[in-house]
Amino acid sequence: SRGHRTFPPRARLVLGVSGKTSQMYDVIIVGGGPAGLIAALVLGRCRRQVLLCDTGEPRNAVSYHMNGFLTRDGENPHEVRRLGREQLGAYPSIELRDGEVVDSRQTEEGFEIVLADGRRETSRKVLIATGLPLPQPPPVFWLWVVVGAGTQIMATALMLMAMNDRSFVAT
Q: Is the pTM of this model over 0.70?
């Protein structure tokens, strides 16, 4: 699509607790809004095995328009999500999964997440792209990464840093 080259995925298999072989993802992305979709796209283009988990309930669901998003300024957020998911289909190393992540834990190999339906998946890294559920971040994850610029993002980052000692701020 549009001149994009696709490459075969780089599969990794791991032996699960039940003795069954399952896939070890490079990255599991929690949240399928603009940030999660962009992260999946960049990682997929780098041939990383990516699982993107999304509840389909974006924080901006009540908004009629997205603002400040390059090439999509003023567009309906649901349409942006639909187009993003469609474009990710060109990358065989990206798997989209509808569902809520309800728990996670760090393991010797990386991370394990648990979905609401009870399925468990493992990865080397977990990227949280759910928006900020204020005022209290969920206890599920052990690291927060805040990326952005301006006074609002700094205020959010400072609040998160005050609430825990595992925040990283990039401005």
A: no
